[in-house]
Amino acid sequence: MARVKFIRRRSDEPSQLRPSAPARNRPLAPAQPSSSAQNLDPNIDPRLQDVNVHPGTFGDDSLVSQGTTINPSVSRGAAEPSQQSAAQLGGADPNLVAAVSGLLLLGGANPSQATAPQVTAPQAQPRPRRANDIFPNIIQPPAVPNPDPDFGGPRINSTSKRVKRDTGESKKPTLSVEQLSMQSFKNNCRLDARRGTPQFNIFQAILQHAHIFFHFITCLDIDELVTLYAISKDLHNVVNTATTAIMLSQAMRYASDAATVFPFRCYRRLCNDDSRVELDQTRGQSRLIPSFRWLRMVRYREEVAQKIITMLNDEGLYLPGHCATIVKKVWFLMDIPDNQRRVAIIQNEDLWSASDLFYAIMLFMRIDMRCTDPLAKRAYGHMRRMLIAQPSMTMLCRVLERKFLINRVETVQTWLRWKYEPRNNDPADFYGMPLAELGLLQYEGYGKDGRHVKLLRPDDLILKECVRRGMDMEPAFFCILNCTGPRPEPVVDDDDTMSLDEADK
């Protein structure tokens, strides 16, 4: 008798039954083995194939009504239930043997082992199909407990059974071509913050590249640099590490001539101590580095010197461009409040050449010509002497701008500060000025140190140096008076003008 093997269909598998096939009344077991019974499809219900089965024998309802328990699991490696039943029944009826074999294949209990009816238990949910269920020869790796995510293990999301590895990379949204177009960028200068797109900071990007940062610093104005130095901590730290290079680059860009004439080492009060260098015990101070005060000073003096030359040229008193450097050198002499260092500097031919002395004389003569009446019978140089005796060239610039010494009161007060020597019977308020300020500018230190040594003015020192070097200044005076500047060439258009020969005709 042919053995028929039935495979129970799982609840999670798609049904392959043919719903149109009607139920037939078939015997419990096949009478005679046929050729068609030898080729059975194990995946199709045997009741739908050409197998004669008695009606109601294999139905699930009949099994439950008889008090049997459906066992969904069958242990692997044990003998098949049909073989066990056949061995127990021995030479019983073949139809009974086939029925018991079919029941055991469908998960029914063995009649020899079932002693009492059992209550049907709820069927457990079928577990997902694994690889070993389909391919039993594949060896699965042993289950490893979830490692600690802090030590490199995967982070498991509690809401999902799938393991998600945290790579630490944030997902950035991909912008379309329309969003990256120039028109969209003009309309929306800043990207929407809700998208999570990080804002690009060009200032922070420049700070990360040293070769670009120094070019960027050089292009900044002094006021802009001071503002960024005050509000940006990163730029503040970078500038402190290279203060000398940054200050000198700024000075050489905006006031290159003034940075050479007024070196920062000569202005101790405008410099800072380098904190990165240890204190020099021999001098009692560390290395000096320039500060923003020195940078503002050279920029201001460069502008004032250029303004003085421009205003004199506008008045018809020609001065060449080199005289702007002479104005700064005379200003440097004003910063020295004692005679000894002034004489040493003016006698140094590396600092004051013969051409510098000539242009200095030319500058003083132009100031005399500007401050005196050309129709006066006799001209005096008291105004020029009083202006050069001041500690700064700022007063000369203000006078040329007609902002100072515009009345007699200001002129008298300025002269009293420079030349007047107070007397015992003078009132405490002399022309609106205290007695302590009268006549201080004529002494060394500008009267601040209490010394009463007359201070030599820069114009006197330059005239004496010309005599000491043996320069013939008499023809130089005539050259300066007759010099009216370069004559501009007349612009002649051949189409609109005609020559003198054609005009005569």
Overview features:
single chain; 505 residues; mainly alpha; 3 domains; two-stranded antiparallel sheet; 6 strands
What's the short story on this structure?
With 505 residues, this protein is mainly α.
List the helices and strands and how they pair.
Layout: H1 60-65, H2 81-89, H3 94-105, H4 131-134, E1 155-156, E2 163-164, H5 182-187, H6 202-207, H7 210-219, H8 222-231, H9 233-241, H10 243-254, H11 256-261, E3 271-273, E4 288-290, H12 292-314, H13 323-334, H14 339-346, H15 354-371, H16 382-388, H17 394-400, H18 408-418, E5 429-430, E6 433-434, H19 458-468, H20 474-482, H21 500-504
Antiparallel strand pairs: 1-2, 3-4, 5-6
Would you write up a description of this structure?
The protein has about 500 residues and is an all-alpha fold. The protein folds into 3 domains: about 1-10 and about 20-115, no CATH class; about 200-290; about 320-480, no CATH class. It contains 21 helices and 6 strands. The protein has helices at about 60-65, 80-90, 95-105, 130-135, 180-185, 200-205, 210-220, 220-230, 235-240, 245-255, 255-260, 290-315, 325-335, 340-345, 355-370, 380-390, 395-400, 410-420, 460-470, 475-480, 500-505, and strands at about 155, 165, 270-275, 290, 430, 435. The chain has a two-stranded antiparallel sheet with strand order 1-2. Strands 3-4 form a two-stranded antiparallel sheet. Strand 5 and strand 6 form a beta hairpin. Helix 2 (about 80-90) runs antiparallel to helix 3 (about 95-105) and helix 12 (about 290-315) packs across helix 13. The radius of gyration is 56 Å and the shape is elongated. It starts with about 60 loop residues before the first helix and ends with a helix. The model is unreliable at about 15-20, about 25-30, about 35-40, about 55-80, about 110-120, about 130-135, about 155-160 and about 495-505 (pLDDT under 50).
